């Protein structure tokens, strides 16, 4: 038995903010953002569109596409670094309640932009281990809440949203075949939230305001991202006996067009194998891969039997990917 993705759903916040609109409040321009990142817009959640709300809506769409009753689900995993509550309860616990499912298992995964790749593998583990039959895996982020809107070097990069999949057992040997999940903790200060944890609690009047938001060393993250993009894709192909011709799509974390372009050049894998949608949604961290899958599904691009690689990278520094036979 294997475990695979039965269906995909998404939730995108109603408010769409273009580069032009952003450049009215931050010193930047559409030209700079597009040429440095490939981003044209982002969707920003309202107060009502909490992380758990977006996650629930994405899960509802995935459930309805799977033509499955909510009571058939016996586990929920939410990958997020922007949970409703900083420490607990987990956002997955809130989603379980929102969906009105009985007392099933649910927990959050905190692996930043690699969170969805981790979540998928954990979902597979629960199914293959016999702990669960059907699992919802969600990537959901409200990054606008941890973005320093005064810092142009990060404010232009991020957006909000959620994507969800229903994972079910497969008897045809297809589905999620392989995953690579890694961390380089020596880079944990390259992209992080300096304050608010137990090591550096927020102290009013003492903690600098910028420490309450996401901090990033852009160059360091860029170099890391290009390298691990290539490494993960090459290793997934090698481990599974694939050539670039065998792969139908690479669905990367949608951080920056230039990262993907550089990875494509370095690996020799044609750019048109990569599915890209950061132009519309910007970087939505753990939501970006399932959001891309949901968009591909809506466009009718995903067919059973297709060979798909995902590749994620981000804070931690985490990185990894999945090999899926759709
Ligand atoms: C953030 C990133 C786009 C910056 O691009 P870059 O080419 O490295 O740009 P630099 O940081 O060297 O800045 C170049 C100039 O642009 C300016 N700049 C930075 N952000 C700007 C913005 N939004 N608008 C206009 N100018 C900006 C800088 O102030 C700097 O100006 P200076 O030369 O006068 O000092 C790039 O480093 C990157 O993509 N890093 C990876 C980020 C990422 O994807 N993180 C998430 C991973 S999950």
Task: List key phrases describing it.
single chain, 326 residues, alpha/beta, Peroxisomal Thiolase, Chain A, domain 1, 2 domains, four-stranded mixed beta sheet, 10 helices, 32% helix, binds coenzyme A
| Unreliable runs | none
Task: Please tell me the total number of domains.
Answer: 2
Strand order of the largest sheet: 1-7-6-4-5
- List all distinct small molecules, including ions and cofactors, that are bound in this structure: coenzyme A
- List the secondary-structure elements in sequence, H or E: EEHHEHEHEHEHEEEEHEHHHEE
Rg over C-alpha atoms, rounded to the nearest angstrom = 19 Å
Strand percentage lies at 15-25%
Figure out the total of helices.
10
Q: Name the structural class.
A: alpha/beta
What is the H level of CATH, i.e. the homologous superfamily of the largest domain? Thiolase/Chalcone synthase
Mean pLDDT: 97
DSSP strand count: 13
Structure description:
With 326 residues, the chain is of the alpha/beta class. The protein has 2 domains: 170 residues, Thiolase/Chalcone synthase (Peroxisomal Thiolase, Chain A, domain 1), CATH 3.40.47; 149 residues, Thiolase/Chalcone synthase (Peroxisomal Thiolase, Chain A, domain 1, 3-Layer(aba) Sandwich), CATH 3.40.47.10. 32% of the residues lie in helices and 25% in strands. The protein contains 10 helices and 13 strands. The strands form 4 sheets. A 5-stranded mixed β-sheet has the order 1-7-6-4-5, sandwiched between helices. A 4-stranded mixed β-sheet has the order 8-13-12-11, sandwiched between helices. It has a two-stranded antiparallel ribbon with strand order 2-3. Strand 4, helix 4 and strand 5 form a beta-alpha-beta unit. Helix 7 crosses helix 8. The radius of gyration is 19 Å and the shape is globular. It starts with a strand and ends with a strand. The mean pLDDT is 97. Coenzyme A binds next to helix 2, helix 6, helix 7 and strand 12. The site of coenzyme A has 21 residues, from helix 2, helix 6, helix 7 and strand 12.
